[in-house]
Amino acid sequence: MKRVLIVSATMGEGHNATGRALEEAVRRQWPEAEVAWRDTLDVMGTGVGPLFRWIYVSNVRSTPWLYEYFYRSLWRHRWFATASKRFVGLWCGPRLGREIARYRPDLVLSTYPLGTAGLAWLRRHHRLPVPAGAWISDFAPHPFWVYGEIDLNLVMHECAVPPALACVPGAKVAVSAPPVRAGFRPGDATAARHRLGLPPEAFIALVSCGSLGFGDVEDAAKELLAAHPDVVPVVVCGRNEALRRRLRPLAAREPRLRLLGWTDEMPGYTVASDVVVTNAGGATGLEALACGRPVLMHRPIAAHGRANAELMERAGLAVVCARDGELAQAVRTLITQPDRWKAMAEAAQQHCDRTGTLADGLLALAGGSTSATRFSGEVRRPRG
User: Fold this and answer.
1) DSSP secondary structure of 203-255
2) pLDDT tens-digit profile of 138-175?
3) Other C-beta atoms within 10 Å of 241: how many?
4) Three-class secondary structure of residue 341 per DSSP
5) Where does the Glycosyl transferase family 28 C-terminal domain lie (predicted)?
6) Which residue among 49, 222, 249, 280 is least enclosed by CB atoms within 10 Å?
7) pTM above 0.90, yes or no
8) Where does residue 33 fall: left (phi above 0), alpha (psi -120 to 50 degrees), or beta otherwise?
9) Domain spanning 3-177+356-375: which CATH class is it, in words?
10) What does R_g of the chain's alpha carbons equal in angstroms?
11) Cα 65 vs. chain centroid, distance in angstroms?
12) Type and span of the H or E element at 313
């Protein structure tokens, strides 16, 4: 029986969402597998999780310039990236090593960069004898994500390979299928709308900015309502009840606006939508990609959000709407020029068709037969 350890972190829900998708894939590939989870921040010590979450939320909401400065410094100064990763590895590695020694897995899957730093430290110190892979759920890799000591760093698109190798030349990199739950796949939009009570002929814009509801969600809703009378915005507020309360007066005035809190129906709403509006490009962007839905990046958040948005746009999977009015204009363009919408949707679907399944990455990591393409050093185009 195969024993698999998933190393994640509760920093919002994105990293855990990737972990749940990997667990599903593990159980499909190896039905008798035993799967355990470790939260990196809990492993690092009491109080680390709440502190790091507070720092992250504060930076994104209040001091985005500081978050951007840290992110850019990782790219500009290799010594700074290396020192930061070594520091986190030293902090996390020995503690994570005790968990690995206790569980004795056959395979370790990381969905969180600080956890991967700990795994890299263990590998350097000959304390990680089993294969370890890192699923880089940000569309655009950054230096904290990629490690040369890890057996496989899995990125989300062919265009993400060069930046991953720029982070760590010679790292072992492969392109993964989007690590999303099985429910996120192309489906019947009409049936999904009927089941969810959405108008069948409307242009559905699903607004989802993660479990924390970051960013200018209210402005996005207003722009979408003003864009065209056929637009029905469906705003997922996640766990941000304050956002939901702020939007209720607008929803009372504009019955087209639908408000949701935390919901387990995200696969259905994504299939039912015409476009997905988000601002970071992590789990939400990958879910849209897996369902073949175009993405509109509205005022991307600092650092990794902007990098993800730029790379998704370069890949033909998203349109970046950074200024006032650009979101409304993008929606009008997609409504009046349906070929543009179709081209973006087809690009998403073709990418998913090329990358196969999550099992390919698991088999590549475990040493089994697979069609997954690996990159190391010189960049080559993937097969298929």
Assistant:
1) EEEEEE-TTTT-SSHHHHHHHHHHH-TTEEEEEE-TT-HHHHHHHHHHHHH-T
2) 999 999 999 999 999 999 999 999 999 999 999 999 99
3) 12
4) helix
5) 205-350
6) 249
7) no
8) beta
9) alpha beta
10) 20
11) 22
12) helix 304-314
